[in-house]
TrEMBL record:
This is WAT1-related protein. It comes from Castilleja foliolosa. It is a multi-pass membrane protein. It comes from the Eukaryota. Pfam families: EamA. Residues 333-364 are annotated as: Disordered. The keyword Metal-binding does not apply. One of its GO terms (cellular component) is membrane. Belongs to the drug/metabolite transporter (DMT) superfamily. Plant drug/metabolite exporter (P-DME) (TC 2.A.7.4) family. The keyword Transmembrane helix applies.
């Protein structure tokens, strides 16, 4: 039982990030549908954070009332994810969901770079482990680009032989260059947010409360930004029983609420680079699920890109695991070193007590 529990404990972070990627893959699809129906990228961010805040706040108040520390200004200014979200939605509006998913694979590399600069991520250029993390990140991004940019021959899958490709939405005016710039800025914002969140969790360990505050502040600041950017178009606030409402609720519950909290829990143990390094998996998940749900045809380029992604992820995970083992070894050595003086002191005390007894006996 003990060994089984230990294995499950080690597997939890990996299962968690895979669940996150399934959630992200679904969100990319519903978000694009909502934006195609005329949703504003500004109100999207507001409603997404608002739904998440409404869901999480009651749980945070009840479950973390005894462990929640006081909010400080330094923490306050570290938990506003509005920039990344708005730029991401703007980029998604000007590009396709697949292109956006591919561009978002810049996130692991940007997170690794920022975490390295802020010294959250340990990097030793002489270490093989660090080389593996750097190479793994680059390989993962490269694999994602291959999946998007290289098609190749179609692989004839039994369930896709009757595939009918959907026509392009006439209202969807794509601008890949503009979209790429916006998505890159959005990824940079998210990379900074993830890295700073990892730092913040060390001084503010109440993860659920932190997530609720992130979403609440995101909704508040997003509302102000929307009033400024969309002041001439009040119709963007309208809600109806359509894909837009589904995207807002899905984004709030899954992509903001569950994702922020779960990623925070995983980051406590594995760090921000580990969480974002799995982002390219969402492309693989989308490709596989689309082949079943939408009968989307698989190509050699997609399969090859997916294989490269898996190789890159393995390199990153291997490097992270080796780093963690080194840290554990150092901690054990430090614990032993701290225990030795106390043991020596105890022996010295025993020796002194014995000497006193002998001296007392001799004097008698």
């Amino acid at each position: 039982m003990g060994k089984g529990n230990e294995i499950m404990k080690k597997l939890k972070p990996y299962v968690g990030v895979i669940i996150l990627q399934f959630g992200n893959a679904g969100f990319g699809i519903v978000a694009k549908a909502a934006l195609n129906q005329g949703s504003s990228n500004y109100t999207f961010s507001v409603y997404r954070n608002l739904f998440a805040a409404c869901l999480l706040t009651p749980f945070a108040i009840v479950l973390e009332r005894k462990i929640r520390p006081r909010m400080t200004l330094s923490v306050f200014f570290k938990i506003i994810p509005v920039i990344g979200q708005n730029m991401f939605y703007a980029g998604l509006k000007y590009s396709s969901a697949t292109f956006t998913a591919a561009m978002c694979n810049l996130l692991p590399a940007l997170t690794f770079l920022i975490a390295w600069i802020l010294r959250v991520e340990k990097v030793n250029l002489k270490s093989v482990h660090s080389h593996a993390k750097i190479m793994g990140t680059l390989v993962t991004v490269g694999g994602a680009m291959i999946m998007t940019l290289i098609s190749g021959p179609i692989i004839g899958l039994p369930w896709t032989h009757k595939a009918q490709h959907a026509s392009t939405n006439p209202n969807d005016q794509e601008n890949p260059v503009k979209g790429a710039i916006m998505i890159t800025v959005g990824c940079l914002g998210y990379a900074m947010f993830y890295t700073v969140q990892a730092i913040t969790l060390k001084s503010y360990p109440a993860g659920l409360s932190l997530t609720a505050m992130i979403c609440s502040l995101g909704a508040l600041f997003g509302t102000v930004l929307t009033f400024v950017a969309e002041r001439a178009n009040t119709s963007v606030w309208a809600l109806g029983w359509d894909a837009k409402l589904l995207a807002y609720v899905y984004g709030g519950v899954v992509s903001s609420g569950i994702t922020y909290y779960l990623s925070g829990v995983i980051m406590k143990e594995k760090g921000p680079v580990f969480v974002t390094a799995f982002n390219p998996l969402s492309m693989v998940i989308v490709a596989i699920m689309s082949s079943f749900i939408f009968a989307e045809q698989m190509t050699v380029g997609k399969v090859f890109g997916a294989t490269v992604i898996v190789i890159g992820l393995y390199l990153v995970i291997w490097g992270k695991n080796k780093d963690l083992k080194e840290i554990e070894l150092i901690q054990k050595q430090q614990s032993k070193a701290e225990a030795k003086p106390s043991t020596n002191e105890a022996k010295a005390d025993d020796h002194m007590n014995g000497s006193e007894k002998i001296t007392g006996a001799n004097s008698v």
